[in-house]
Amino acid sequence: MTPDGRPVAHENDPGNIAWRPPSQVVGWRVACSCDPFRKHVILDPLWTRVWDPVDEDLAAGRVYAGPPVSVDAADMGDRKDLESLFLDVWQRHVAPDLSVHTIRTLSQSLKDIESKLDGAVATARASGVSWDKIGRALGISR
User: Fold this and answer.
1) Is 0.70 topped by the overall pTM?
2) Residue range 79-112, pLDDT digits in tens
3) Ramachandran angles phi, psi of 120, nearest 5°
4) Hey, which of 10, 22, 36, 46 would disulfide with 73, CB 3.0 to 4.6 Å?
5) Which residues pair with 28 in a beta bridge?
6) CB 30 within 8 A of CB 89
7) Cα–Cα distance between 82 and 75 in angstroms, integer?
8) Per DSSP, what are the bridge partners of residue 62?
9) How far apart, in whole angstroms, are the C-alpha atoms of residue 110 and residue 21?
10) What CA–CA distance (Å, rounded) separates 31 from 33?
11) Which residues pair with 57 in a beta bridge?
12) 3-state secondary structure of 14
């Protein structure tokens, strides 16, 4: 991120993968590539970099990533304690779509079951089974 909060890769050329020295890393955001056409959706909140470990407060979104001269200060991959925070943001982002997917899948399953039930009822009726007996099998009565 630039100091004003813009993703670095979007400064000049959105398709360009940009690199900045660790001393210029001022924060992190979770990104999701769920958007059509492979655009990244940048999610809130912004985790702001602090320069002193005593200032780190993950609940407040302040992350210590080493001193500015550190060669790996921008690499958050080693911070296992951050993974659950970042995943939580991503999971809240995709939860609505996952719910819609579940509804769609269950709806199709329900249609398939109803079709099979209709076929079973038709087969039973063709075999001479009474409506009364079929109704009891379905758990319904007149």
Assistant:
1) no
2) 777 778 878 888 887 788 788 888 999 999 999 9
3) -65, -40
4) 22
5) 47
6) yes
7) 12
8) 48, 57
9) 55
10) 7
11) 62
12) coil
